[in-house]
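Changelog excerpt

This revision adds worked examples to the README so contributors can see how folded entries look when concatenated. The first example is reproduced verbatim below.
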Amino acid sequence: MYRMKQFAAMTGMTQSKIRFYEKHGLVLSDRMENGYRVFTPEDAFRSNAFRVLLQYGFSISEAIEMLDAKQDTAEFRESLQEQHRKLERERILLDYRQRRIESVLDVLETDGKVDFKLVHIPDQLYVNASHGRDFTVSMENEKVLAEYYDLLSITSCARIITKENLLDSSPSVDPDYINTVSVEEEHFLSPYAREHVKRLRLGRCLRFRRMVTREESIQKETFDGLFEYLDDHSLAISGDVLIMPMFLNLDGEGSDIEVLYVPIEEAAGA
């Protein structure tokens, strides 16, 4: 038999955690006549078995449920296999997050200066959260949007400016708010989502990276540098433009960093 302090030292647990385990039936202490709690070696074994399940990434409630289950069954092996698949998916999502942070750090090192680069971008599968400033469509797309938000490591909240809107004579653009994912990651989507998304054709694009305020971002004059670059290099816009946010100032007063992917083709007569 072990007293509380001895049991804590032996298992590496604090006394408050031991009480938590007691509350959930993971260890079953007894009390001596003098009122002191006492524990057995079996309690230490159960607590360590519980922590092994936590090491595998199971939640506390899952580990509690599994603790007394038979562990030489097909059901238990399937639980481990399913957990392995879950952790592999989480690892992939973490890789995406790291790459996103690295790309933002790279931009911040340039102080957010305007930057142009020719790139090839995979087509995007997207779902509308708005048409311009009208967000009623989000109710129609609620199920798919929820799935995209659950995959936010690989999906992105973005905007689309139609080619017509960018080239017309209006003083500002009115982009659609969307949630999007690369076609290369289509396998992450459910069959239902794949049936209810739209496809944005990109391919050869001019990447236009800029720092603008929230108000400036929709003003046509802030696209002057883009049009000058296109003219200087005999390029023309061939499709709708994707805007990906990289850094947002939540107070709306500072400058946002955003990347525009502009589908291009050789200008006529070039």
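The second example, added in the same revision:
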Amino acid sequence: GGMAVKPVNINTAGVSELDGLPGIGPVLAQRIVDYREANGPFRCLDELCDVEGIGEKRVENLQDYAVAR
């Protein structure tokens, strides 16, 4: 089996944690944090699509690695 990775909570994770997610670099990580501060917590992972530069495909790839609550 693979490594048991604890999913990253996108509402509490800092930039460095978010940066570690597949397909999310430091720039997108910062945008996620900025979006969260401006709009409040994400209700679901799909809301990441509202962040500039993050599309549905990228969010799909995050399903196993990130949670919104």
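Reviewer comment on example two: The radius of gyration is 11 Å. Residues 15 and 29 are 5 Å apart (CA to CA).
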